[in-house]
Structure formats: structure tokens, C-alpha cells
UniProtKB/TrEMBL annotation:
One of its GO terms (cellular component) is plasma membrane. Residues 198-658 form the Arabinofuranosyltransferase central domain. It holds the Pfam family Arabino_trans_N. Signal peptide: none annotated. It comes from Mycobacterium haemophilum. It is found in: Cell membrane. Residues 40-193 form the Arabinosyltransferas concanavalin like domain. This is Arabinosyltransferase. Residues 1053-1085 are annotated as: Disordered.
């Protein structure tokens, strides 16, 4: 199949050779120079006091610590606070409880009967303690800290700490007010190393590298065209250009999935990076790694996504590149790869249909999102095609273009490194081509364009940044993790087969198991001495070797996520073609045994596949059948059925091997193309893959239809196409003021109605200490044994029984959740370790408002509760419904409210109004705790009918901390920005459901350099009740109002200057580690 090319005479024009050499060398030189050339950096400084006033300022650093900070505290400043004591200077507000652990604090402690003491505390170290009287008048306490050392000096004392002890800085806070005492100042040089713009020289070098490479490769192509004849092998026009039915099916399937199918886990992650790149000046890693970029990866891809998000950030628009890549990848498979694999492959409908089914089974679950695997999959396959074209035509310029393609693919994402072994798979033939061409053109003319093509990716990756960024980025990833060695690759497959979360779902398992099976079948076939008629053996070997090498190359990625498999989609469908031809040949020689063996292997693959749940990420999982458990029908698990079928096939195979006589004729004499068994053996792979694709499409179609008009991915996408792009923000209904919807009692007083029907064992103080609002948790700095509660890692105000709440209406001192007013809202709880027996509560009747049909359809009854509701253990909450006349109430039914949230935290039970009988106009609460278990308790507040607004209306364009899991579903919300190393202050935080919130908290936390690492030092979270319209019992997530710990502090006014920095300049190490931080699980996996 390899084309034979006849060299004619020596090249006649020496000018072409000179052009190739000169422009090739210029391209190499310019491309290598780009990372080293200088940039214009925006250097930011924070200086305090401002305008001579000691007012507090806020400046949360995304890098946590400045590159250098100098603090001077004069004796005059110490004198101001020495009588009562207080904080003179702090880089973290002391009310956050973490000022000493992470920050720098200079405070004066006043003790009765002793001299006031000035103390300098730096990251939990008492660096210096000195009586104020020992600091001479006119003298200062001076602190200087940089990456190499920290010094503290006062009077005649000087203490030096070697190493990096820089404090975290989120602002400057002080108990001083009014004019600043003389000699008091803070000067911090902030870490804005990534906020750069290219210099003219750098831009010129980047363009020169691209242009010189283009000229050199184009000249090489023209030189080869003048001196060579056409290759003998050319695929037939019908093979190369005919639009097949399989092409239409693939394109239609991709379009269908684009509108109806699942998104990927990291859509929001990459969307926010791209959206904020314009504001920040570089594509910062928004949620981790101290906002370092991903250099040298992702530059062009982030620019593309950012440009699309600038047009509109709606989900369908930002996923257009993935759709385009899917179509392009399939066209490469059908137009270039399959014809290259041989005459049988190029003319077989079964081969095309099987390739299409395997391709879709891979692409749909892995590549339908904003992650970079789709362009990597295209780049990988295009690189292989270009190498094959070079081999087939005996020309160098396709290989040079392949080098450039591989380099740009690597620059797109880390998974692009799988292009490297693909280039090497045909290295023997490529070396022969180099040798033959060098005899005519010379080695310099051959190597220079190729070297320029290989290096041009450097000009793209470092067009706006420098090489010095790479060590900082690498260090940030190494410290925060994940950073798993190559021998930890087993973790990727453990996740795939675990099933504990969607990374091990059946849709993700099947394509990986299929590629492993087809790879084994193809490898056995093409490396056996038997020839397979119609199979181009050498291209087939190279595609198999390329796929195997790509899977091995994934070992060297430091992260072991299953979504990296998405880069193999094109290779998987190509290897499947080789496998089915090999299977077809074996069927011809040994029909019964081969068909049985293949059927048994596929049954085993399906058994492993369906042992996992049909789960998907976040909103894609809404309404999906079998999303929480393996597929089963009538209590029988499909995985068990498939396993039984596989074992049966194995038994039949053994019987056939023993009893059936096998034809001894050589395989090449079987004329397998005429065998009736051959299509059957080939099509089993295609039928299995098609069934999986159909199952996935049916799952999402069913979910969209069953949930309508509630939110679904499909409905959201169609809404976006109709001009409503805000996705989940239009369906999440928020209760801004919980006191407005409080129901009024029918007859009794509002203050006593909660227990008017009878109370036994419920008291106004019956709530245990430490009960908080749902999704809130203790301070994020946990020990290794702590179970992190889902959601916010903010240090939220405790709703406890220790007297920290205002005295309520029924003499309760419980601090109520969600902003409930204790002056008008009673609370009763059953928690009391000294009381035994059944505890019960029956409230009085509460009037329901008169609502029209629309309000009933979109309204609920809600009541705030805490504790554990478990009827099987004897803890019950019901809402009894009545029809009230002038004097009596008739019971018309009862309903069990949906319990959404994490027990025993405060949360909102909810009952949709449309479920109530039409004559219902009153309701009351009935609660029973019959268990003697002290951990089984309940606390309740009166019911209410919330007055709801959409989240979009509530937040508007205020800055929001969007957790990465939810970010793509709230495209109309404005994520907080950062510039010059300082973050904008968000007003709200939006979290996913309680399971995904664990991931968000850990990934975005302090240890990994995420935004929660500074947000938890500045805010406390106030949970706002919220619900998903038309799916009221869905745990969609949570919205929190971020309440500043220092509301009087103002955003800092930074000083900016532009400084030219060389390509090797670095202000010091980026990740500043804090000994008190406990590594999160992502560090280890």
C-alpha cells in the first residue's frame, strides 16, 4: 500500500535549498528565543496607611503571600493601644480565627498589674515579645520578609528566620482609627509575575518564527513536488470523498448529543479560566495552584473559549469547538485512516459502521464539553495521518507539518504528549525518507524546515509569557497536587472501575474496555506470521502501535483522571477496524470457535460495564435512569446476566475446542471475504457499541421528557438557542426574606402556635451545641480524621444553644438559620439527654394563602428543621392538611415533606402546593421522636410559603464565587475577577449539591492555593434558602451570601508600574506552604 516514488534528477535551483536552510534556521532561532525574550510586567504594590489615615483595607492575594513585605510599627503607634491593648497591624483579620496561623500580627497585650507587651506573631510563631516600654521613643519595630529570610528588629534586638516565612495577606487590619501615627507603614510588593504583556521584540519573534517556518516548509513541498513523480497508491475517489450513510449518522448523533447529551465535569472550570483571562491578563488557574497559569499548555484553546464566551457564555456556544472537533475527528477516520488500512477496510460497510459506533461510544461520554480532549483527539489523529502521508508519498513536508501539529497539540493540553510516540511509530520509514531526500537536497535543507516546524509551538505557547513561568507552575502543581508518579497509573483504572462517582460510570467504562479488547485482538492479528488478505499490514501495525503507545504515555501525566481517555477517541475507532478484519479472518478459518470467543469477550466487557451505575456529572445526572445503582430489571442486575452469558460462552468454547475438527487449510486460502460468518464476526463489535450508544441517547431522551418542564440539560440548551442563555440561574428560586412568607395561625397566637396542638419533650432550647445551617462546616483547616461536611468551607456563624443567639419569642436563645427573625419566629427542639420516652409535637393550624393556579404550580410550603428524620428509627415529621370552616377544621390528608439537605443541619423541608387537595386551606405540623437514641432528635420552626425570585434576579451582575462544578450552569453570573495578583471581593458563593460540594471545598481550599484559602479569612457564609423550580426535592446546590468579617474595610488602592522583565526573571518561589495545612486528598491522588 505504500506508494513507490521515483526520484528524478537533482534539484535544479539552489535558491530553494538556501531558502529552506535560512528560513528553517530563522524559524528555529526565533521560536527558541520567544520564551527567553522580555515581557512588560505590571508590578503592583500595596502601601498603607492611605492618605495618612489608618483605615482598614482589603486586598486578598491570589498567591496568598507578597513577594516581599516590610512593616514598620513605631513607638507612637504602640502607645495608642497600650492602655487597652489591641491589634496595631495584621495581614489577616483576627476575627477570622486564623490570623495567627497564616498571617502576620503585631499586637499589644495589656494586663492589669504588668507592663503592656508588644508581640509579633508570624504564622503561629511568637517571633518577638517585648515590653512597650523597651521600645525607645522615636524607634520602630521593623519586620521584613521575603522568600529567603524574615527579620524582626526592635531596639537592640534582631531575630532572623531563615527560609520562606512570608505571611498570607488579605488586607491590612488594625484597631487604630483616624490619623495614622507617625512611623507606621506597610509596604508589600505583590506577586503579579503572571500579569504580563509581550514586548515588541517578543511579538516580532513569534510572528517571525511562524512565518519563517511556513516559508521553509512550503519551499520544501515545492522542491519535492518538482523532483518527484506521483505516488502509485491513491485511494479511489469514492473511498476518499463519497459521503456515506455512516457519516450522516455520526454527524446527526453528534448534533443530537450536543443539544440533549451530557456535559463534562470540568466545563465550568475551563469556562471560568477562559472568561477571566481577559480581565486577569493571562489564563490563570482560577480554582487552585495560587492562580498560576497552565503554561506551556492551553494558550490557544483558552483564547478560543474566551472569545466565544465574550460573544455569549451560554453552554451551547462554548461547546461549539467540541462539536466541530467531533465532526473533524470522524472525517479523518473515515476519509484518511480507514482507506489507509487496506482495500477490505476501505470498501467494507461493516468496517465503517463499526468504526462509527466505537467512535460515538467514546466521543459522547468523554468529549462533549469544554475540556481540551476534543482538540487533542483531532491533533493526535491528524499527526498519524500526516506521518502516514509522508511514508506513502516518500516526501518530507507532510512529516514536517505533522511535527508542527504534534507540537501545537502538546501545547493545547498535557494529554497532547501522546502525539510524541505517534511520531516515533513510523520513525524507521521516516529516517529512510530523510536519507533518500538528503542525497538530493542535502541534510541541512531537509532538517532545517523540520526543526522549525517542531519548534514553532514554542512561539505559540510562550507568545505572552516567559520560560521562567514553567518552574513556578511545575512547583505549584507538585506542592498542591495531584502529582502522581507514572507507576501510580493504576489509580486511573481504579477510578474507572470503582463506580463511587461518575468517573466510574458505565458510559465511561465501556469505550475504555472496548479499546483494550480491540487493541489486543488487533495486536495478536497483525504480529502473527499469517497474512490477512486486504489488510495493509504496515499501516495497521503503526496504528496499533500508536494506540498502545498513547495508552502507555498516559502514565506520565501527573493527574490520573479518567477523562484523559477522551484523547483516544479517534485512535479507538481506527483500531476497531483492524480488529474486525482480524476477527473476520479468524471466523473464516474457525467460524464456530471465533464467533463464540468474541461473543464471550463482549459479554464479559458488558458485565464489567453494567456493574457500574448510569451516572453523570452534576445536572447531567438529573432524571437519568439507574443513576445511583447498576442497571437492573425486575431486581435482576444486567451485569450478572452478562457475566453468566460470558461464562456460558467460555464453556461452549471449551467444548468446541475439544470436539469440533478444524480445517487445516492455510488462512490465506480461506477466501474469507466470501464467508457468511465473516460479516457476523465483524458486526458483533459494531452491534455492541451501537447498543451502548443507543442506551446513552435513550437515557437522556427519557430524562428530558420525564422532567419537563423542570430543568434538564436538553431543555436548558434549547432555551439558550431560543435566547434564554442563563441555564440553571432561571430555574433556581431563591427566598431572599424568609420572614415574609411566614404563615399565620388560624386561631392561636403566633408566638405559641408552634406547640398549640400539644407538646411532649420539645423545648425552646432543645437543639444541641454546634448545629449549623445545612452545607456549612467547621473551619476548613481540618485534621486528617475530620469528615468534611459538604459545602461551604467558610467559618459560618454557629447556630448553637450556648446563648449566642438573641432571646427569641418563646424564651429561646437558639440563633435561628436562614435569617429567621427570633422576635417573630418560635423554635422547639427535642434534644434533651435527661428526658426519656416518646417526644411529640402537634402545632396549631396555620392558614394557607389563597393562590391562583400558577402560584400553586410554582409554590411550596417550607419549614426549617434540624435533626434526623428517619421513620424507620422512630423520627417522623408530617404536614397535616385541613379544610377549615368558621368553627371547625376537617382533616383532609397528610403529606411527608421532602427532606433535602444534610442531617442534622438546619435545612428546609418542602411540600409542593400542587400536591395539596383542592379544598385545603390550613396545615399543621406533627412531629414524633419515639427512639431513645440521644442522637435522634428534631427541631422545628413554623411553616411558611416562600416568596420566591429567580437566582438571576437576586444576584444580578454582582461578583460571585462560582464553584467549578456549577460554573458552566450559571453563565449569566459574573465570576469575581483578579488583576495584578489581587482578587475582587465576591458577594455570593454558589455551590453544587452536597456530594459535589465536597469536591469543590477540597479542590478550592487553602492547601491547594484555591480561592477559599483567602475567602474563608474574609467572609462568613449566610445560607439563602433556594429551590429548583418544578423539581422541589432536588438537591441542586446552595447559594450563600458572603458577609464580610470587616464590613468597614474598603478595597485597597494599589500602585501599579510597568517593568520590563527578562525571560528568566523570577521573584521567587510561588507556592508558600503553611505547616498547619493538612494535605487534601487531591495531593495523593
Amino acid at each position: 500500500m505504500i506508494g513507490q516514488v521515483a526520484l528524478t534528477k537533482k534539484i535544479s535551483s539552489p535558491i530553494a535549498r538556501v531558502v529552506m536552510i535560512i528560513f528553517g534556521l530563522v524559524g528555529v532561532f526565533c521560536a527558541v528565543a520567544v520564551p527567553l525574550l522580555p515581557v512588560n510586567q505590571t508590578q503592583t504594590r500595596l502601601v498603607w496607611p492611605i492618605a495618612g489615615k489608618s483605615e482598614e483595607i482589603i486586598a486578598p492575594l491570589v498567591s496568598y503571600s507578597p513577594t516581599r513585605i516590610v512593616v514598620s510599627v513605631s513607638r507612637a503607634a504602640l502607645d495608642v493601644v497600650q492602655s487597652a491593648g489591641g491589634t496595631v497591624v495584621a495581614t489577616v483579620p483576627e476575627s477570622s480565627t486564623s490570623a495567627d496561623a497564616y498571617g502576620l500580627v503585631v499586637r499589644v497585650t495589656a494586663r492589669s498589674g504588668s507592663l503592656p507587651i508588644a508581640a509579633v506573631v508570624l504564622r503561629n510563631q511568637m517571633v518577638m515579645s517585648i515590653p512597650v516600654a523597651d521600645v525607645p521613643v522615636g524607634s520602630d519595630i521593623t519586620i521584613s520578609s521575603d522568600p529567603t529570610m524574615t527579620t524582626v528588629s526592635a531596639s537592640n534586638r534582631r531575630i532572623t528566620l531563615k527560609g520562606d516565612h512570608r505571611p498570607q495577606l488579605v488586607g491590612i487590619f488594625s484597631d487604630l482609627r483616624g490619623p495614622a501615627p507617625p512611623g507606621l507603614y506597610v509596604d508589600a510588593k505583590l506577586d503579579s509575575r503572571f500579569t504580563t504583556r509581550p514586548t515588541v521584540a517578543k511579538t516580532f519573534a513569534a510572528f517571525a518564527a511562524a512565518l519563517a517556518t511556513l516559508i521553509a516548509v512550503t519551499t520544501l513541498r515545492r522542491a519535492e513536488a518538482r523532483r518527484t513523480k506521483k505516488a502509485v497508491f491513491r485511494p479511489q475517489r469514492s473511498v476518499r470523498r463519497h459521503f456515506r450513510l455512516s457519516d450522516a449518522v455520526v454527524v446527526i448523533s453528534l448534533l443530537f448529543w450536543y443539544l440533549v447529551g451530557a456535559t463534562t465535569q470540568d466545563d465550568g472550570y475551563y469556562l471560568i479560566i477562559a472568561r477571566e483571562a481577559m480581565h486577569a491578563g493571562y489564563p490563570a488557574n482560577y480554582y487552585r495552584f495560587w492562580s498560576a497559569p497552565e503554561t506551556p499548555f492551553g494558550a490557544l484553546y483558552y483564547d478560543l473559549i474566551g472569545w466565544l464566551a465574550g460573544l455569549t457564555p451560554s453552554v451551547p456556544v462554548i461547546r461549539l469547538p467540541g462539536l466541530a472537533c467531533g465532526i473533524a475527528c470522524w472525517l479523518l477516520v473515515s476519509r484518511k485512516v480507514i482507506p489507509r488500512l487496506g482495500a477490505v477496510a476501505g470498501s467494507s460497510r461493516t468496517a465503517y459502521w463499526t468504526a462509527a459506533a466505537v467512535f460515538l461510544s467514546f466521543w459522547l461520554p468523554y468529549d462533549n464539553g469544554v475540556r481540551p480532549e476534543p482538540p487533542v483527539a483531532v491533533g493526535v489523529l491528524l499527526t498519524w495521518c500526516l506521518v502516514e502521508q509522508a511514508i506513502a508519498t516518500r516526501r518530507l513536508h507532510p512529516f514536517a507539518v505533522g511535527l508542527a501539529t504534534a507540537g501545537l497539540t502538546v501545547a493545547t493540553a498535557t494529554s497532547g504528549i501522546i502525539c510524541i510516540p505517534i511520531l516515533l511509530c513510523g520513525i524507521r520509514e521516516i529516517v529512510h525518507i530523510f536519507r533518500s531526500q538528503a542525497r538530493v537536497l542535502g541534510w541541512s535543507a531537509c532538517l532545517a524546515p523540520s526543526a522549525a516546524a517542531a519548534a514553532v509551538a514554542l512561539a505559540v505557547a510562550f507568545a505572552e509569557t516567559t520560560f521562567a513561568v514553567v518552574p513556578a507552575v511545575e512547583a505549584a502543581h507538585r506542592v498542591a497536587g495531584p502529582d502522581v508518579s507514572w507507576f501510580g497509573e493504576l489509580q486511573r483504572y481504579q477510578r474507572l472501575l470503582d463506580g463511587a462517582d461518575p468517573s466510574g460510570s458505565l458510559a465511561l467504562r465501556f469505550p475504555v474496555l472496548m479499546i483494550l479488547f480491540t487493541l489486543i485482538m488487533a495486536a495478536i492479528a497483525i504480529y502473527r506470521p499469517t497474512k490477512y488478505v486486504g489488510l495493509a499490514i504496515y499501516p495497521s501495525r503503526r496504528i496499533v502501535l500508536a494506540t498502545f503507545s498513547a495508552i502507555v504515555e498516559l502514565m506520565f501525566l501527573p493527574t490520573k483522571w479518567t477523562h484523559h481517555f477522551g484523547a483516544l477517541a479517534g485512535l479507538a475507532s481506527s483500531v476497531a477496524v483492524v480488529a474486525i478484519i482480524a476477527i473476520g479472518s479468524r471466523v473464516s478459518a474457525h467460524p464456530s470457535r471465533t464467533v463464540t470467543a468474541v461473543a464471550g469477550a463482549l459479554a464479559f466487557i458488558l458485565a464489567l460495564t453494567f456493574a457500574g451505575p448510569n451516572s453523570w456529572y452534576y445536572v447531567s445526572n438529573y432524571g437519568i435512569p439507574w443513576s445511583a445503582s447498576p442497571v437492573s430489571v425486575g431486581g435482576i442486575k444486567l451485569s450478572n446476566v452478562m457475566l453468566a452469558a460470558s461464562i456460558s460462552m467460555l464453556a461452549i468454547l471449551v467444548w468446541l475446542h475439544i470436539h469440533v475438527e478444524v480445517s487445516r487449510r492455510p488462512a490465506q486460502e480461506q477466501r474469507f471475504k466470501q464467508s457468511r460468518c465473516w460479516p457476523r464476526g465483524m458486526s458483533m463489535l459494531g452491534i455492541t457499541a451501537t447498543a451502548m450508544v443507543a442506551f446513552e441517547m435513550a437515557s437522556f431522551t427519557t430524562a428530558a421528557v420525564a422532567r419537563y418542564p423542570a430543568f434538564s440539560v436538553a431543555r436548558s440548551n434549547f432555551d439558550a438557542l431560543a435566547g434564554k442563555p442563563c441555564a440553571l440561574a432561571d430555574d433556581v428560586m431563591v427566598e431572599p426574606d424568609v420572614n415574609q412568607g411566614m404563615l399565620q395561625p388560624r386561631s392561636s397566637d403566633a408566638l405559641t402556635a408552634l406547640g398549640a396542638g400539644g407538646v411532649e419533650g420539645f423545648t425552646p432550647t432543645g437543639v444541641p451545641v454546634g448545629t449549623v445551617s445545612a452545607y456549612t462546616s467547621p473551619p476548613y483547616r481540618t485534621t486528617a480524621s475530620t469528615v468534611v461536611d459538604a459545602s461551604s468551607s467558610m467559618d459560618v456563624t454557629r447556630w448553637t444553644t450556648d446563648g449566642n443567639g438573641r432571646r427569641g419569642t418563646n424564651d429561646s436563645n437558639i440563633a435561628l438559620p436562614f435569617g429567621l427573625d427570633p422576635a417573630t419566629t418560635p423554635v422547639l427542639g427535642s434534644y434533651n439527654t435527661n428526658v426519656v420516652g416518646v417526644k411529640s409535637l402537634v402545632s396549631g393550624w396555620y392558614r394557607l394563602p389563597v393562590l391562583d393556579t400558577m402560584d400553586k404550580d410554582e409554590g411550596i410550603i417550607s419549614l426549617a428543621v434540624a435533626g434526623i428524620i428517619d421513620p424507620q428509627r422512630g423520627s417522623i415529621v408530617k404536614l397535616e392538611l385541613g379544610a377549615a370552616s368558621a368553627s371547625t377544621v376537617t382533616l383532609v390528608g397528610e403529606v411527608v415533606p421532602a427532606d433535602v439537605g444534610m442531617a442534622p443541619s438546619w435545612r428546609n423541608l418542602r411540600v409542593p402546593l400542587k400536591l395539596l387537595p383542592s379544598n385545603t386551606n390550613v396545615a399543621r405540623i406533627r412531629a414524633i421522636v419515639s427512639s431513645q437514641d440521644p442522637n435522634l432528635w428534631l427541631a422545628l420552626t413554623p411553616p411558611r410559603v416562600p416568596r420566591l425570585r429567580s437566582l438571576n434576579e437576586t444576584i444580578g451582575d454582582q461578583p460571585v464565587l462560582l464553584d467549578w462544578v456549577v460554573a458552566a450552569q450559571f453563565p449569566c453570573q459574573r465570576p469575581f475577577g483578579h488583576r495584578g495578583g489581587v482578587a475582587e471581593l465576591p458577594r455570593y458563593r454558589i455551590l453544587p449539591g452536597q456530594i459535589e460540594a465536597n469536591w469543590s471545598n477540597l479542590w478550592q481550599g487553602h492547601f491547594g492555593g484555591g480561592p477559599l484559602g483567602w475567602a474563608e479569612l474574609l467572609f462568613k457564609g449566610a445560607v439563602i434558602p433556594s429551590y429548583l423550580r418544578n423539581d422541589w426535592d432536588c438537591d441542586w446546590g446552595q447559594i450563600q451570601r458572603l458577609v464580610p468579617l470587616k464590613p468597614e474595610a474598603q478595597p485597597a488602592q494599589l500602585k501599579e508600574s510597568t517593568v520590563r522583565r527578562s525571560g528568566l526573571w523570577s521573584p521567587g518561589p510561588l507556592p508558600v506552604t503553611f505547616p498547619d495545612d493538612t494535605p487534601d486528598p487531591f495531593k495523593r491522588s
